[in-house]
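Translate sequence into structure tokens.
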Amino acid sequence: MQFLMGGKANEHAPVFGKYQDKAEMFMCSCMGKSYHNVQRTPGGLIYRQRWNNLQFVTSAAFLLTVYSDHLTSARKDLQCPTGSVHPSELLAFAKSQVDYILGDNPRATSYMVGYGNHFPQQVHHRGSSIVSVKVNPSFVSCRGGYATWFSRKASDPNLLAGAIVGGPDAYDNFADERDNYEQTEPATYNNAPLLGVLARLIGGHANHDQLLPVEIPLHKRTPVQPKPTPKARVSPFSSPLEIHQKATTSWVSNGRTYYRYSAVVTNKSGKTIKNFNLSVSKLYGPLWGLTKTAGGSYGFPTWVSSLPAGKSIEFVYIHSASFADVSVSSYTLA
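Result follows.
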């Protein structure tokens, strides 16, 4: 790409151009600016498959980071089928994927072992699941390691610090169980691309940065107030949209109880809904799965262009209060 953008491809420009087209098609699909966009979870994580999905997330984040720098150096924007993307947006999205992995997600779980307050405790890893020889020097056979240690429900006796596990499913759910290899198995190819992204992010704020500056927006959490444990709520509306909310999990951090809420918006009409605006009040924490408008309401996420009859979309939010008030401000039928 450097050769092509720098005008050094010469007679090979047509071949390099094909590679550039493929690369930019992928970048646009990640940014939700293509006709066929990559799938994301309600919490905003790139999703490809259940088995070790984070390998695709870290690799995509690395590619987005590199391409952001290429575009910045060439002083160009990414031209996508449905709009242009500034290089800083590519880097900011890559950072959002890293933030998700490290705990800024609907479960408030870090998928890097040993990082943060909540991380996987039962990693699908033989060395991590067996007691250290320094603690118990007794010989552990291959079969013994499986029969005695693998099936234990307790936390790993050896902390596999820094390992990135497979990660959550398409709905941000994660089962921290040692035999759940699809989600709890670590891999070196999960970590390797992430190191490049982290190096770029820290390098971008250092004096030795040799690249053009790309500003990275930082996420700030909103203070929350604790409330009693909530019960499920169905919000009736006079519109064709039905909203059902429920609390899916809770945890205590620093003496405060936090709740993760799932809100499912269903099109009950017989027609496709082209767009909608939801009003969300009494929200004291982050929300994922909707796009906030300039007016403060919430619309479709970037990867959804319409809601067919009978179909639903889900968004999630976290705070230490009872249900947020969600209502339909407007909608447009096809």
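Note: Helices lie at 2-5, 13-30, 54-74, 87-101, 126-129, 142-150, 181-184, 188-203.
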